[in-house]
Amino acid sequence: MNAPQNFAAPQQSDEIDLFELAQNLWREKLLIIAVTIVFTAGALAYAFTATPTYQTSVNLLPPTRIDVAGFNIDRLQEVGLAPYQIDDVYAVFARNLTAEKSKRWFFNNVYLPSLPEEEDQCSLSALYAKVEAQVSIKAFYAKTDKQVQINLLAKPNPDYFTLTVQDSSPEATTAWANAYINHVAELSLDEMVDNANRESDVMGRNIKTQIDSLRATAKVRRKDRIGKLTEALGIAESIGLENAPVIGAQIDQQLSAIMDASLMYMRGSKALTAEIQALTNRKSDDPFIDDLRSLQEKLKVFEGMKPEREQVAVFRQDGQVVTPDSPLKPKKFLIVALGLVLGGMVGVFIALVRVMLKKHRKLA
């Protein structure tokens, strides 16, 4: 019996012949070049026809002590009003800068009027989302050295803000940035002046109330005094006592009883009649009210607490808003380079597919 013979089956190599691959790609060089040219041409067309985007930025800093000093004229702890600090004033500006009402004002009064009629008919919500993308505000903190987007602003007292505006028109970026900053500055200044005036007005009204109360009380006391004197005058006249008797020992006690107590009639009818006439003819009780003049001085101080807008500021602007002279995007060189690289890669891929298909047909 013959032993079985073993026949070695031919094994197909999975190794890639790089030389053969290079030859095949070289045969498809026209295809690779054509695809690369198409992609590069598309990139060139996009780079030179795409609407350019310009960007301008400006840093907004806290005010100086001199800027805030105008709010603190006559504001002292002694009069019940603490002076405003830089952080107090800057917090008002920061709140208005990042407030939804400020962005809505900009959207309705600046952005919408600048649109052409056909674009103005678009969805307002879509346009507003576009504005939020074009006008961004970031807060920067020195301690953490990191920036926080406006919608994530949670930390108090940022060191400064950066307002960034993007648009296809370089002049629009400058105009929009100035319009937004000026509006927020006016809004914040109005709020600060109104706050200062309201506080001084409240304190002034409180003092006026005290003065009116003292005057009313003095008037009532004068009437009470006249009533006591009138009663004492009746007693003095009934006993025929015109002049006060001679005072003996214990002068202080006797004078106290005669002037204010039940022995007031002992002053005599002449003295009582003269005082009644004087009290009746008195035109004002002000000279006889204790602490009235001090209150009137404080009232004048509060009435004079009117900050002058020209002498105060709620923020500082780091330089002027400069109109950009070159677009932020598109970056033409980068786009063309990417188109060239991507075209070459796609061309090589298509060439490899063609080579594999040709090889498959030969084997079939």
Overview of the molecule:
The structure is a single chain. The chain has 364 residues and is of the alpha+beta class. Among the domains are: 22-52 and 328-343; 217-303, no CATH class. It is built from 12 helices and 5 strands. The protein has helices at 18-27, 29-49, 65-69, 86-97, 100-114, 117-120, 124-134, 170-238, 251-260, 269-281, 292-303, 332-363, and strands at 54-61, 135-141, 146-149, 160-167, 316-318. Strands 3-2-4-1-5 form a 5-stranded antiparallel sheet. Helix 2 runs antiparallel to helix 12 (332-363), helix 4 (86-97) packs across helix 8 and helix 5 crosses helix 8. It is rod-shaped, with a radius of gyration of 46 Å. Mean pLDDT is 82; it is low at 6-14 and 143-154.
Brief descriptors of the model:
12 helices, 59% helix, alpha+beta, 364 residues, five-stranded antiparallel β-sheet, rod-shaped
Low-confidence stretches: 6-14, 143-154
Order of strands across the widest beta sheet? 3-2-4-1-5
**Shape assignment:** rod-shaped
**Helices and strands, in N-to-C order?**
HHEHHHHHEEEHHHHEH
Distance between the termini: 40 Å
Helix content, binned percent? 55-70%
Strand content: 5-15%
Structural class: alpha+beta
Q: Got a strand count?
A: 5
